Please model this.
Amino acid sequence: MYEDKTYESLLNEKLSKVDSKFDKREGSIIYDALAPNSAEVAMMYLQLEWMFEQMFGDTADREYLIKMAKDTRGIEPKPATYAILKGAFNIAVPIGTRFSLGTLNYIVTELIDDTNHTYKVQCETIGTEGNKHFGTMIPINYISGLSTCELTELLIPAQEEEDTEVFRKRWRDSFNATAFGGNRADYMEKIKAIQGVGGAKCYRTTNELGELVGGHVKCVIMSSDYAIPSTTLVHTVQQRIDPTQDMEGYGLAPIGHIAHIQAVKGKVINISCKITYEPRYGFADVKSYIEGAIDNYFKSLIETWEDSDHLIVILKKIESEIIDVIGVKDISDTLLNGSASNVILDPDEIPIRGEVIG
Model:
């Protein structure tokens, strides 16, 4: 807005207003008086431009975007959360018992199965680092008779604090669809506010007899780490939204609705192709890199699942990802699930990497 208000332009403007009969050359009294003033005024214009940007949601910095969103829509960034995992033990352990695995500590929070001695275990480190580690834990304090303590499964993924641009989009989207009284936006807003949910789709659905009647709503969810959610997360969402499923409105679903919470399904994509390698390279050398490239492509697809009618795994895109791997010279005869064509997924499916043969 004030791009033309630079130090040089301001100084020249001030000097131009001084009569030419006076010495205005660099080093003169007039020049030396106006130069620092021009620098200060240029800084003032920079501050004015910054303040102007904070007035609009598209350009506001995070601090002022949060203030604007809270004042206009009553929403704030989603906070970072703690990972909830399943711990398996050979004996019963008290709630509150603490364990360590690597650099992270965990605390037992809830019993899952007293016969198999499985518990919910919460990582004490906030954020997504707690989603990544599994294996044998070490008790922080001695427990008599304990010989097995394993972290076996991620139940509810942790999330980092909501990214600024993601929050900005959520704030902008809140003007386009008002959440109210069990409409689609209301279900989406309430479900996605639950820890561990990364995306959702909501539809009308049939009753137990297969009849499309009023009041039945199917909500398909994806976990916040862009994967198939655990049964624990699906159950948690069901209990929060509609625990009784009797149209009585004892959850967040309104009276007259029955909400059916389901997990997104995974579609395994097997990939075979003929790869020409650079000298001194073979499939064993590049396999992990190829799998990583494919996983990154699938993740970028899955991130768009909520806003897509159905995802399409594009064969040419797979080839493009593979050929960019170091050691790969050329690729041909690519097949996805045995066919030389794109794979169109159902609305409630996300791609899962299967076997890769090259």
